[in-house]
Write a structure and sequence with these properties.
The structure holds 2 protein chains of 2 kinds. By secondary structure, chain A is of the alpha+beta class. Chain A has one domain: 2-Layer Sandwich (Ribosomal Protein S5, domain 2). Helices cover 33% and strands 25% of the residues of chain A. Chain A has helices at residues 37-54, 71-85; strands at residues 7-10, 17-23, 28-34, 60-66. In chain A, helix 1 links the parallel strand 3 and strand 4. The model of chain A has no long low-confidence stretch (mean pLDDT 93). By secondary structure, chain B is an alpha/beta fold. Chain B is 25% helix and 21% strand. Chain B has 15 helices and 25 strands. Chain B has helices at residues 54-60, 81-92, 110-117, 131-138, 153-159, 197-202, 240-243, 254-268, 285-301, 314-321, 336-339, 353-357, 402-408, 456-464, 472-483, and strands at residues 50-51, 68-71, 98-102, 121-126, 146-148, 167-172, 174-175, 181-182, 205-210, 230-233, 277-281, 305-312, 325-333, 348-350, 371-374, 378-380, 385-386, 411-415, 419-420, 423-424, 426-427, 442-445, 448-451, 491-500, 506-513. Chain B has a 10-stranded mixed β-sheet with strand order 1-10-9-6-2-3-4-5-24-25. In chain B, a hairpin with a 5-residue loop joins strand 7 and strand 8. In chain B, helix 3 (110-117) packs parallel to helix 4 (131-138) and helix 8 (254-268) crosses helix 9. The chains are: A alpha+beta, B alpha/beta. Chains A and B meet through helix 1 of A and loops of B.
């Protein structure tokens, strides 16, 4: 998918994450802050990168403010931000496809 | 050298007879040589001990660089006194190389962090460390490792001369002109002054700081004039709103209530639950709610609680007034209901921290305790509990009376949700051991109950009562299946804090955390 415009998903409530995406420069640029950075920073990064790969996003600036979200929450927030950025959040969501 | 709970304690700390933790009751039967303070004689009758300013009081007590000042934390997050005294000592008298020996330090004392960074404060000894002080100590800014002791370990160390207090500062809600202090009757009331009592008896000098001067004699006094050198009257010793909260309310959170009900079920299944039993609970959500369910079982069996101790709050005072508990003995008050009840409600008494929890005296209250219900930041599969360091390795907690009540009680129950956000509360290895696993008996979580294998008798009690329980390993696996397995924290070699077991042996150390990078 192509990131067409800036979009956000999520909140900074405890156990959630705020995900912001904007069009990139041909690569994936991830910035991450987390309340559980020391113990889960790497796992959060891996989850985000895997989700972007599954959505076939190759160029994006993505910023995550994590407040201890579980993996399922992180995936859902990343997916939502990406679909919103290409105006695909209200229709054409590939349920059962890349969204599993 | 590895200690009893598997923690590696650097050999260079094992000097002057210091040993590593060897298991509970290791010091039983040994002797302790008590220290005695060098105090000034006031033979000539004095009409008053009031001096104009804190600086005057410091000069009167011969304050010098390198001294140790002590404080109590009864004013909790509302305390103004630590900052006022340190400011006078450092900025007016120009002292440095100072050590603070407090019963707890928190966000109210953030200005002290600056004195640590500047090297004016070089030592911290405390039973709790939070806020900016915790951050700068964790960052390795304090010249010597902080020493963290339990509420019982602290009076042991003072009485045994491991901590020598040059000047004790007693924040007093009321005092008379010669230093008889009480925690009630003023405008910044805190109730019990139990944590100040040992300090006043063992310090070379004692300065009372009050914002409410009352007529002589202020009786019954918690700290007595016979131990006091000077009295300073200030505008305000603290913010009353932060000293005692409005009445502690019982949680309505269904998860807390479910855990609380299971705590009460476990208690009711043991042989210690009989007429006259004794009890202590924390003020956290599920711990406090346990009171409610316990009362139901007490009514069913037609039994009453003999006595309760601890940090006291409204619901326990309520039970006292209803006649469901015989006596309440109180080292600290958490809410206004408790503050207004101590020494007023019949059978609500004050006690010192030593009387409460000191393992080296001839029998503290905790030694007669049947049940204690406590919270935890983390508990590992060895039943070791951490209530001091966060998941990022930073000091932000307080052992308080946790290790003392766990060790003294016949049945210590830890109640905690299995996960908090993405943090696994039940884990493989706690960041820091603050209460050793050989003192913890039962774990109650929202995903199940586990009993320490060291207590086959309690396992049998639960089986007989039909209370399901699982292994603590299975709870840990359940937690990790929800949140993922955490990466190990990365530490540098430098020790920033030493955690003493209540008996004075070394239970664990906290090292400086490495700055985290994703790569």
């Amino acid at each position: 998918m192509v990131i067409q415009k800036p979009a956000v998903a999520g909140t900074v409530e405890s156990s959630d994450a705020l995900v912001s995406v904007e069009p990139g420069d041909g690569k994936i640029e991830l910035t991450l802050t987390s309340s559980v950075m020391n113990q889960y920073g790497r796992q959060i990064r891996d989850t985000v990168l895997e989700t972007l790969e599954r959505l076939d996003v190759k160029s994006v600036k993505i910023n995550i403010v994590d407040k201890g979200a579980l993996d399922c929450t992180l995936k859902a927030r990343v997916e939502c931000a990406v679909f919103r950025s290409s105006d695909a959040s209200e229709k054409d969501i590939p349920w059962g496809g890349v969204i599993r | 050298m590895k200690n009893y709970v598997g923690r590696d304690i650097p050999d260079y700390l094992l000097i002057n007879g210091k040993e590593v933790y060897q298991g509970k009751n290791y010091m039983d039967g040994k002797y302790i040589q008590k220290a005695s303070p060098r105090t000034r004689r006031y033979e000539k009758p004095q009409e008053s001990k009031i001096v104009e300013t804190l600086a005057d009081a410091l000069r009167l007590c011969g304050a010098k660089s390198g001294m140790t000042f002590s404080f109590h934390h009864h004013l909790r997050d509302g305390d103004f006194v630590v900052n006022m005294v340190m400011k006078a000592a450092i900025e007016e008298l120009g002292l440095d190389n100072l050590t603070i020996a407090a019963t707890s330090l928190g966000a109210a004392h953030d200005p002290v962090a600056e004195y640590i960074t500047e090297g004016k404060v070089v030592g911290i000894q405390t039973s709790g460390i939070r806020g900016k002080i915790g951050e700068v100590v964790s960052a390795g800014k304090l010249k010597t490792p902080a020493i963290v002791r339990s509420h019982g370990g602290r009076p042991r160390a003072i009485e045994g001369g491991e901590v020598h207090i040059d000047i004790a500062f007693v924040a007093a809600p009321t005092s008379d002109c010669v230093g008889n202090c009480r925690g009630i009757g003023g405008k910044s009331n805190c109730g019990s002054l139990g944590y100040a009592m040992t300090d006043a008896k063992y310090a070379d000098h004692v300065v009372v700081v009050t914002d409410c001067l009352v007529d002589f004699p202020n009786m019954p006094a918690s700290v007595e004039a016979i131990d006091v050198d000077a009295v300073v009257v200030v505008d305000s010793i603290g913010n009353p709103k932060k000293i005692a909260s409005a009445a502690a309310r019982i949680s309505q959170n269904p998860r807390d209530l479910m855990m609380a009900e299971n705590v009460a079920k476990v208690i009711a299944a043991t042989p210690y639950f009989k007429e006259g039993f004794s009890f202590q609970t924390g003020v956290g959500g599920p711990s406090l709610a346990a009171n409610l369910f316990l009362e139901k079982y007490m009514d069913e069996r037609g039994i009453k609680m003999g006595w309760a101790i601890g940090g006291i709050c409204g619901p326990m005072v309520e039970m006292l007034k209803k006649g469901k508990v015989g006596k309440v003995i109180d080292v600290q008050d958490f809410d206004l209901d408790a503050v207004n009840s101590i020494n007023q409600t019949p059978n609500h008494f004050e006690m010192s921290a030593s009387q409460y929890a000191n393992p080296a005296n001839k029998g503290a209250f905790v030694n007669k305790l049947d049940f204690v219900v406590l919270a935890a930041l983390e508990i590992d599969t060895g039943f070791n509990v951490n209530v001091l360091t966060g998941s990022d390795g930073v000091l932000r907690g307080a052992p308080g009376g946790h290790p003392d009540t766990a060790a003294g009680s016949k049945c210590c129950i830890i109640v905690t949700p299995l996960i908090r956000g993405r943090m696994a509360t039940v884990c493989e290895h706690v960041v820091t051991v603050t209460t050793p696993g050989d003192c913890v008996d039962v774990l109650v979580t929202d995903y199940g109950i586990a009993v320490n294998p060291l207590r086959p008798d309690l396992i049998e009690c639960l089986d007989n009562a039909g209370i399901p329980h699982v292994s603590i390993e299975s709870l840990k696996e359940k937690a990790y299946s929800l949140v993922g397995r955490p990466d190990d924290l990365q530490w540098e070699d430098k020790v920033v804090a030493i955690l003493e077991a209540r008996d004075g042996t070394i239970l664990d150390v906290v090292r400086k955390i490495k700055p985290f990078t994703l790569e």
